[in-house]
């Protein structure tokens, strides 16, 4: 029996409690699988005397996660504090400087400081593992970084914010408006304190930035992810999409193109019969595409105590077993700054708009599209009332940039009642 | 730059060519990701002068895979010969005895000799990796053995024979009889030389035995897998199942119960709306369930040059990166012989039978079920012709053993025209 692997856990919220439960419940199993005991030396959280329903008395207590990270009896610093600055960042840096390995669920921290932290880890002979930061319990970081390491990755996609997928599928199944379901999700405690992190696509964008770095061997570039939230999706969009055999998903797509790395997190239409289209509720899905493997689809719980703790423990077990890989799959110094694509891969687009009910309005819209070089695949005008006319257009493949200039031109015609909703139809 | 990892590849069929192509095409990428070059020293196959569409001139040639396995310039023996005896087994043993690591796609070899080979590997400080042996390109061995290693695994399921899934989904979509589609699959070259390996569930059973060993920390026990093929599935079964919202799949299930390890590979009904139910064509799916993670679903190509070579290279890259784990997730000596479950977990069953069209026939059948303690959930009698009556019964939850005794009793009544088809309805 070799020496135990000793954890220091900072942050004892839902996930921290889950990790402690696994270590306590499955001590023998973890030892049998890794060849050494996995133990907890010390923990840290904001409130010491809170009842968390889990036994903490055997562990040393530290008020300050930075102190915890530096303890001599901690081999692996498990960071479950959250946030891209402040104590989480300070403590991770302290752990790495002390040569300790880090396991984290903190997507924001790595999305903003991944490159610097990876360099710091390597300079100190430490590793950073972050399976729990992306798509909860789905072992997608391992699948991408290890299982598919013989592939040139061609595209990575994911529905990685369970709250957004819950909102969109609930709108469809119950026929409810966005605002109503947003309020429901809020009441159920599904939303972050700042809901923009969820519905604005930021949280999912963090995850996509991490996947893209690993997939394409480049530095994490969260600022290069084009973000668009689901706030403007109306029940009409969901119904129109369904009529045409599509579903609306907040979909992340990263792909290396001849024009650079294209990364975007935005509401898209995907075929209702595809695995992504069939994804219901808060479940997450990650789609990995490689030149040899083709398409691999991974599906599972994206959040919650058990699934996220499972991912944390997968990383802890890897470290216990001596698996030591660079943070983003290759040495940090060899990760190039990604060239951001100056244009997106063309796709068909779904456009919904409301026109003033005047003669020639539709002709003006069509001519704006034509002048931008965009041809129309289908168009539908719905019943209208009170002088305005809802119109639905599906274009042939077009560049997003061309579409944006067409939309800008439409605004100048005076026939639009409000800004059109434009959704990419992704070929998944 | 550390020293290259040198491969010796035995078997240059579809998968071998795929592996060689990856090594040739992606030399720089593999080096960047693993920190060392991956090279091929020598190859071996039955026919030397066959045009395989790939450049072999740089590699030494061996007629005998055993000699290849022993070469000084080979670090990893890649076994793509196939078969559970003969040259594949001899060469793998030779490689392990020489302390060389083995990467294999050979499910039959490991299903029959996994324990002995794992012991041999450990005695010689070598590792065996077999991602390519289970579900082709899907990194399910890695997900189960590493990613979910913080979980007590509660159940593992899989549709892992693409040919069978092709046959079953093609029967449904084209409304064709089993024999017709079987012939199509044969003409398309989808079937093994001995088609029983596919349609009899043997190939998929091998894979399930490997997953079960890894999932439950026990010795591989292929003989403990209850095998049932798809040969008796009629288009009627598929249509009746569809009417009730189900699809028929050749489904492998392994779970640890209070009565021991239950492992079976058999045609089952699964909800049409579940990920397993939605799986079309030759695609594979593996479902992993753990006490913390819940359900993780993995989907991808189960065979073919690229996907299988991707899995082989994933293993090669792990070895290049210094990842060295016991074959079945824990030391071979600690793997217990599994106690085989003496009874299956109860489930509802679908029963189809043809009765002689005589008064009281149905009553006799119903009473056979009643006497075995099985209650009927639904029953349907179809139009009949020429003196016989097709009957469809769905039972409430029952033990398979009880059902078998009911069916035996039915045979004694003289009202059955032929043996009933009984399919488990799996709760997926």
From TrEMBL, chains A, B:
Residues 350-428 form the ACT domain. InterPro entries: ACT-like_dom_sf (IPR045865), ACT_dom (IPR002912), Asp/hSer_DH_NAD-bd (IPR005106), HDH (IPR016204), HDH_cat (IPR001342), NAD(P)-bd_dom_sf (IPR036291). GO terms for biological process: methionine biosynthetic process; threonine biosynthetic process. Keywords: Amino-acid biosynthesis, Methionine biosynthesis, NADP, Oxidoreductase, Threonine biosynthesis. Pathway: Amino-acid biosynthesis; L-threonine biosynthesis; L-threonine from L-aspartate: step 3/5; Amino-acid biosynthesis; L-methionine biosynthesis via de novo pathway; L-homoserine from L-aspartate: step 3/3. The keyword Oxidoreductase applies. PROSITE patterns: ACT. Its EC number is 1.1.1.3. The keyword Amino-acid biosynthesis applies. L-homoserine binds at residue 192. Transmembrane segments: none annotated. SUPFAM superfamilies: ACT-like, Glyceraldehyde-3-phosphate dehydrogenase-like, C-terminal domain, NAD(P)-binding Rossmann-fold domains. NADPH binds at residue 107. The active site is at residue 207. GO terms for molecular function: homoserine dehydrogenase activity; NADP binding. Belongs to the homoserine dehydrogenase family. This is Homoserine dehydrogenase.
């Amino acid at each position: 029996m070799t020496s135990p692997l000793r954890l220091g856990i900072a942050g004892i919220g839902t996930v921290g409690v889950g990790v402690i439960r696994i270590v306590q419940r499955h001590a023998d199993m973890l030892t049998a699988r890794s060849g050494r005991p996995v133990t907890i030396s010390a923990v840290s959280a904001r409130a010491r005397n809170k009842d968390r329903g889990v036994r903490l008395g055997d562990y040393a207590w530290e008020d300050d996660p930075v102190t915890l990270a530096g303890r001599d009896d901690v081999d692996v610093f498990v960071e479950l504090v959250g946030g891209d600055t402040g104590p989480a960042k300070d403590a991770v840096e302290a752990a790495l400087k002390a040569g300790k390995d880090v396991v984290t669920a903190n997507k924001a921290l790595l999305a903003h400081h991944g490159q610097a932290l990876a360099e710091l880890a390597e300079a100190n002979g430490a590793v950073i593992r972050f399976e729990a930061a992306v798509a909860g319990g789905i072992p997608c970081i391992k699948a991408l970084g290890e299982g598919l390491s013989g592939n040139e990755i061609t595209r990575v996609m994911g529905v990685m914010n369970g709250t957004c997928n819950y909102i969109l599928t609930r709108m469809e199944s119950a026929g409810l408006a966005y605002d109503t379901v947003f309020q429901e999700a809020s009441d159920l405690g599904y939303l972050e304190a700042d809901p923009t992190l969820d519905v604005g696509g930021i949280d999912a964008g963090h995850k996509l930035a991490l996947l893209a770095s690993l997939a394409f061997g480049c530095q994490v570039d969260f600022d290069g992810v084009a973000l668009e939230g689901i706030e403007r999706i109306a029940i009409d969009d969901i119904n129109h999409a369904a009529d045409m055999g599509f579903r609306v998903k907040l979909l992340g797509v990263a792909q290396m193109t001849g024009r650079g790395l294209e990364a975007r997190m935005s509401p898209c239409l995907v075929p209702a019969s595809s695995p992504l289209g069939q994804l219901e509720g808060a479940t997450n899905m990650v789609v990995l595409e490689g030149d040899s493997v083709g398409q691999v689809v991974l599906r599972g719980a994206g959040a919650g105590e058990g699934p996220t703790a499972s991912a944390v423990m997968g990383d802890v077990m890897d470290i216990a077993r001596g698996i030591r890989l660079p943070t983003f799959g290759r040495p940090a110094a060899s990760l190039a700054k990604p060239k951001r694509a100056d244009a997106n891969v063309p796709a068909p687009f779904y456009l919904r708009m409301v026109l003033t009910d005047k003669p020639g309005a539709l002709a003006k819209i069509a001519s704006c599209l034509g002048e931008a070089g965009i041809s129309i695949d289908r168009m539908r005008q719905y019943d209208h009332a009170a002088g305005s006319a809802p119109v639905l257009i599906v274009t042939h493949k077009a560049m997003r940039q061309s579409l944006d200039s067409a939309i800008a031109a439409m605004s100048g015609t005076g026939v639009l009642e409000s800004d059109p909703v434009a959704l990419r139809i992704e070929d998944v």
